[in-house]
Amino acid sequence: MKIGSKKFTESIILGEMISILVEDAGTSATHYRELGGTQLVFQALRNGDIDIYPDYSGTIRSEILAGRAMADDTEIAAALRDMGVSMSRPLGFNNSYALGMKKSRAKELGIARVSDLGRFPDLLFGFSNEFMDRDDGWRNLQREYELPQRDVRGLDHDLAYRQLRLGALDVIDLYTTDAKIELYDLATLEDDRAYFPRYDALLLYRNDLPSRFPEVVDSVLRLEGKVSRDEIMSANGRVVFDRVSELRVAAEFVSNRFGIDREVFDQTPADRIRARTLEHLDLVRQSLIPAILIAIALGIWAAKSPRFGQVILAGVSIVQTIPALALLVLLMPPISFLGLASVGLGSATAVTALFLYSLLPIVRNTHAGLNDIAEEIRDSAAALGLPGRFRLLHVELPLASRSILAGIKTAAVINVGFATLGALIGA
Fold it and tell me: CA 221, CA 404: separation in Å to the nearest integer?
């Protein structure tokens, strides 16, 4: 069974709790950690790439069911069922959004409420990219509170905390159960117009899960109403402050709450670096080797058939212009439709994207290398009566090899760099 989680500590901890409860029901579990943002993880669930993951009621309203008027959780559950997804009852805590500042800065300016920010148009705001785009995020918050700030940056959530600590930002978005609020001594500004909705933690899982794993669903749903805000804040703090692994924290919680003992083996930093490096190189291997074979063939075809060669070069050039993250998201539905796994080591989505990105340098350099061979050499080979295939293999390709190898090296560099983005889809 496949469990997913988003790219923040609390989601990973909840994902590990789910994994332990799944295994307690006698089913093997694989946890794909830090898959990315809401839309990407939810689509992975709908596509069948994962079976279950933790989410929040406010996120479902504003992101997954954006634009629909939902009176209550019953209507939300019905709308999700129509999409092939079931929803658990709340787990027991509300992790809402809030705006935060350094306490010293907030005290200096006399800011305690969100509406107070309107008096300081020069404050620097930095929000997570997801918060910038959400319906319940910055745009509507600015409209609700009539905030005058225009210098607002979108960046990674972890980087926002660091920038705030360094004084490069004045205000960032927070999760109300985030342990970093205490770590960085932050003030949580009062939402005096009650803008932010509730974000009750809950579980989303595929409609067919109870029929496939009935014992697993019963086991996992034991989390309903059992995780308090103080407990999850403490769990977040142990990971952030004490550097305890999310798995160990989850195992201790499940042991204390349900009496389930799970043996945990903590990896050392060297172990993690070694494992991630091997996974990274394996993604490169799976995508680059096929790309070399196919791209050289396409480059030869393009050189031998100039008219069709323009189509080939245009096609691989267009792929190169698509942003890497966009290509990963675009490939998820067709890969799933074909029945191929799109998460996990050797992710078909990641391998396909890296393969496509690797084509252009090799195709272009193969085409250029063959076209740059002096006409006298071609004529000499033809005058000797050498067959076309022999000329290609023993004369033209060896002469073009320097250009072809340069294309392969460029493709390898691109591939290694873009393979890092495979983490966003659990590759």
Answer: 56
Collapsing DSSP states into helix, strand and coil, what is residue 77?
helix
Is-contact 91 203, C-beta < 8 A? Answer: yes
What are 331's two structure tokens?
């490939």
- Separation between Cα atoms, residue 366 and residue 325, nearest integer Å: 28
The pLDDT, as a whole number, for residue 91 is: 95
Beta bridge partners of 113: 190
Q: Which residues pair with 186 in a beta bridge?
A: 102
Given a cut of 70, is residue 340 above it in pLDDT? no
Spatial contact of 327 and 380, defined as CB atoms under 8 Å apart: no
Identity of residue 352: T
Two structure tokens written together for 274 = 């070694």
Report d(CA 1, CA 207) in Å as an integer.
Answer: 14
Distance CA 246, CA 229 (A): 17
Query: How are beta strands 186-188 and 97-102 bridged, if at all?
Result: antiparallel
Q: Residue 54: how many CA atoms within 13 Å on its side-chain side? A: 33
Please report the pLDDT score of residue 211 as a whole number: 92
* Tokens standing for residue 288: 């680059």
175-195: per-residue pLDDT in tens?
888 888 888 889 999 999 989
Tokens coding 251? 């195992």
> Long-range CB contacts (< 8 A, 24+ apart) of 229-233?
229/92, 229/93, 229/94, 229/95, 229/177, 231/93, 232/10, 232/13, 232/93, 232/95, 232/177, 232/201, 233/177, 233/178, 233/179
Average pLDDT over residues 31-40: 82
Can you tell me the distance from the alpha carbon of 175 to that of 196, in angstroms, rounded to the nearest whole number? 11
Measure the CA–CA gap between 373 and 370, rounded to whole angstroms. Answer: 6
- Quickly list DSSP for 330-396: HHHHHHHHTT---SSTT-HHHHHHHHHHHHHHHHHHHHHHHHTS-HHHHHHHHHTT--HHHHIIIII
71: CB partners within 8 A, 6+ apart? none
In contact, 100 and 189? CB cutoff 8 Å: yes
Residues of the chain with pLDDT > 70, as a percent, come to 96
